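Narrative progress, year one. The postdoctoral researcher (J.K.) led the effort to move from monomer predictions toward full complexes, under supervision of the PI. The following entry was the first complex the group processed end to end, covering 258 residues in total.
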Amino acid sequence: MIGEGPEGTFVLTSEPQRLAGLREWLREELTRHKVEQQEQFGLQVAVGEICSNSIKHAYNWLGGKPIHVSVRGTDDRLIIEVRDFGKKFDPQSYQPPDLEAVPEGGIGLHLVRQFVDELSFDVTEEQGTRWTLVKYRPGRTPGARPA
Amino acid sequence: MEIEVTQSKSVTVVVPSGDLDMGAADQIRRVLTELIDKGQLKLVMDLGGVGYIDSSGLGTLVAAMKQARAAGGNLKLCALQDDVRSIFEMTRLIKVMAVHATRQEAVASWG
């Protein structure tokens, strides 16, 4: 199952080669939500890294498993959700990278945080992890109430 | 991803085109590892044709750089597009890896 789901939703399967299709869809979706070109690259990286984590950690490189990506926009923010149905994210197992040590891996979430204003995850559903990425529109202040 | 490998005197120039993401990381890793194993240790990677890179792509370049340096060589980069360069800056790799503005400059830096 690959491709667009309901409006604003994309479903890809857990093969690394599917990430290019996701980026293409996301570009169109971000343009539809009037996200400036210069911010689109960062959001593509952020969403791509979360999906890569799902492929690696939630599904342990097993292909054919679903990852759902959705984009919603309000006046003051963009909300992107990434949902997988594999092994739940365990924050205890995550260690921030030591960039001085020039790591070969483990920098995905570091990159995500560079490009979004808020990052959260929910593991309370029966399976998998739901990640929520929030990017405020230019000039809007994080912490303000949703429009 | 298309990967062209050319020789400029004693320097091997690797020119990938496309996105250097998780889907392409294995391919680029194989090419770089093969070159290093064959003793081609003066490496330049021209990233002018790469508009997107993720942590898997970065990890592959870092691993190859370490492998080349351990063998007495290096992997130098050149022609980074602005977005790609920003990723190298955020991860501080810009300070660790040899990054040149142009391919000519990177090749010349090998002397």
